[in-house]
């Protein structure tokens, strides 16, 4: 590789053997194939390295112009140490990093601009989200020691941008920069949205069978002035402002837990949650009934509540909870929580961070695509790519 090229590293971890986890794993496989195809049209990318922990990748990537690094113990050592070893092994100078579920709406131009940013601004760290990073671009030389402290890719912005002297630049929020496949509910949103650009992911979504009726009940409420919607969780403030403008309904936000996964000690922190405390005080049945008296539909990032309550729900349980399938949830409280959410008097969508971040762009676009309502607010198009022009030749 030369200093005029960037290396694209795609990170592919396994997600587990349950039906719900395998859905996300399959989506990541398909999305990775799409990202590899797009990268072939980006002249600034000189090498593509796929790092994963599953033997299936050998078959999946056979014949493709990529370097495959398989490691059955990918999560031990932690993410940052493993990424550092890849950088050192392949002498990576300029890095474009994407997690397997990120970049769903990133096109060739987006990928090229991000690679150009790493090449043109060696003192700058480019991330899609400072507090919960899914993709990043940077010059690696001065960052290797601090990189080893990142236990997960979400830490890249917080640790590298805070402790290395690099200038951290966060791409403006948009569907492109903030949509990441975290849980099965994100696949439900994508399937309903029907505008996934990558053909591998689109073909994968076409094979899935979901009951989308709860999702459509929520999005249909977004276009009516009489409706009141409640959104709970780690909602970025800029996205909350966008969503309030982009919908016709009244939107009440209860924002809490932002940045809870950014720090090195994130796994041991139990953030205090007003919603979680209310749930403790009221009990599950009254909690969901009380919320339903205030809204015709709810969108909830459940992870903040779980963390407040000290519940270390497995990925399997979180995913089945998002699918509103309580009978397949093993943890007793999460099972009861899921059952009450499913039986809520008003439609309730459960999910993780993407649902109340990039997912809100997709839900707003979906809502207006399903209606002939003439009350659409005066608004610009849904910002898929408002971050274009943020960097590159236009900066001094």
Give a brief rundown of this model:
The protein contains 17 helices and eleven strands. It is of the alpha/beta class.
What are the key terms here?
396 residues; alpha/beta; Spore Coat Polysaccharide Biosynthesis Protein SpsA, Chain A; Rossmann fold; 7-stranded mixed β-sheet; 4-stranded parallel β-sheet; disordered C terminus
Trace the largest sheet across and list its strands: 3-2-1-4-6-5-7
Number of domains: 2
Q: What is the 3D form? A: globular
- Oligomer category: single chain
CATH architecture assignment of the largest domain: 3-Layer(aba) Sandwich
CATH topology of the largest domain: Rossmann fold
What order do the SSEs take from the amino end to the carboxyl end, as H and E? EHEHEHEHEEHHEHHHHEHEHHEHHHEH
């Amino acid at each position: 590789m030369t200093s005029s090229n960037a290396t694209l590293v795609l990170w592919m971890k396994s997600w587990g053997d349950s039906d719900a986890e395998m859905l996300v794993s399959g989506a990541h496989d398909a999305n990775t194939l799409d990202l590899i195809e797009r990268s072939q049209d980006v002249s600034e990318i000189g090498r593509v390295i796929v790092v994963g922990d599953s033997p299936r990748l050998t078959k999946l990537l056979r014949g493709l112009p990529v370097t495959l690094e398989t490691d059955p113990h990918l999560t031990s050592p932690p993410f940052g140490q493993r990424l550092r070893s890849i950088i050192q092994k392949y002498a990576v100078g300029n890095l474009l990093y994407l997690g397997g579920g990120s970049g769903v709406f990133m096109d060739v131009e987006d990928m090229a601009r991000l690679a150009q940013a790493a090449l043109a601004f060696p003192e700058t760290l480019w991330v899609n989200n400072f507090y919960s990073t899914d993709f990043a671009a940077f010059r690696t030389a001065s960052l290797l020691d601090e990189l080893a402290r990142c236990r997960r890719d979400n830490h890249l912005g917080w640790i590298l941008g805070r402790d290395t002297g690099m200038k951290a630049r966060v791409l403006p929020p948009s569907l492109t920069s903030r949509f990441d496949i975290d849980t099965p509910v994100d696949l439900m949103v994508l399937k309903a949205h029907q505008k996934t650009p990558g053909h591998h992911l689109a073909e994968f979504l076409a094979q899935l069978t979901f009951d989308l009726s709860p999702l459509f009940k929520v999005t249909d409420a977004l276009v009516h002035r009489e409706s009141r919607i409640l959104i709970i969780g780690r909602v970025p403030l800029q996205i909350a402002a966008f969503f309030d403008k982009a919908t016709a309904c009244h939107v009440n936000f209860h924002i809490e837990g932002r940045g809870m996964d950014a720090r090195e000690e994130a796994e041991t922190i139990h953030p205090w949650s007003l919603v979680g405390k209310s749930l403790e005080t009221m009990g599950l049945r009254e909690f969901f009934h009380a919320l339903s008296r205030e809204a015709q539909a709810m969108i909830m990032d459940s992870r903040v509540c779980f963390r407040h309550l000290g519940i270390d729900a497995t990925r399997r349980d979180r995913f089945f909870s998002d699918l509103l399938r309580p009978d397949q949830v093993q943890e007793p409280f999460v099972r009861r929580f899921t059952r009450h959410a499913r039986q809520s008097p008003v439609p309730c969508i459960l999910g993780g961070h993407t649902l109340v971040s990039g997912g809100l762009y997709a839900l707003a676009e979906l809502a207006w695509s399903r209606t002939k309502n003439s009350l659409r607010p005066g608004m610009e198009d849904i910002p898929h790519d408002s971050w274009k022009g943020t960097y590159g030749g236009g900066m001094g």
